[in-house]
Amino acid sequence: MENEHLEQEEIFSQVLRAGRRTYFFDVRATKAEDYYLTVTESKKFTHDDGSFHYKKHKIYLYKEDFTEFNEMLKSATDYILNEKGDEVISERHQKDFKRASEFDDESEAIKSTESFTDVNFEDI
To answer: How many Å apart are CA 124 and CA 120, to the nearest integer?
Structure first.
């Protein structure tokens, strides 16, 4: 007998790779053949010995919640962009990050950002 908790195959799927995280957007069908969305965040963790594992978090979103979910997501992301702009500051979390005030001179600060490349997900 099949396990009833096994998820249905994806009907439609999209993947967003974002650094150590990957987001999966999968459309699936209920037993009644209605559709719902699963959003899965998979984050890669590396052990000291070089081996790695993934932690996954999943949400299930049903049609009756789409409108309100979309409105709240848009509201929250608009708030963040309005308050903080769209500049990505994740390099501050890197072990070797230095604040501009920590550089010996301005030329060292400029050199530290010269190696970055703008990446558009559409190019990947």
So the answer is: 7
Q: Decide: residue 109, CB within 10 A, 0-12 exposed, 13-18 middle, 19+ buried.
A: middle
Q: In what order do the strands lie in the sheet with 21-29?
A: 12-18, 21-29, 35-46, 52-62
Give the separation between CA 24 and CA 31, rounded to whole angstroms: 21
User: What share of the chain in percent tops pLDDT 70?
Assistant: 65
Task: Please answer whether residues 44 and 20 qualify as being in contact, where contact means their C-beta atoms are separated by less than 8 angstroms.
Answer: yes
User: Integer distance in angstroms from the first to the last C-alpha of the chain?
Assistant: 42
Are 59 and 65 a contacting pair, CB within 8 Å? no
- What sign for the dihedral angle of Cα 33, 35, 59, 55? positive
**48-97 pLDDT, tens digit each:** 898 888 999 999 999 999 999 999 999 999 999 999 998 887 655 555 55
Mean pLDDT calculated for residue range 9-28: 92
pTM score of the predicted model: 0.61
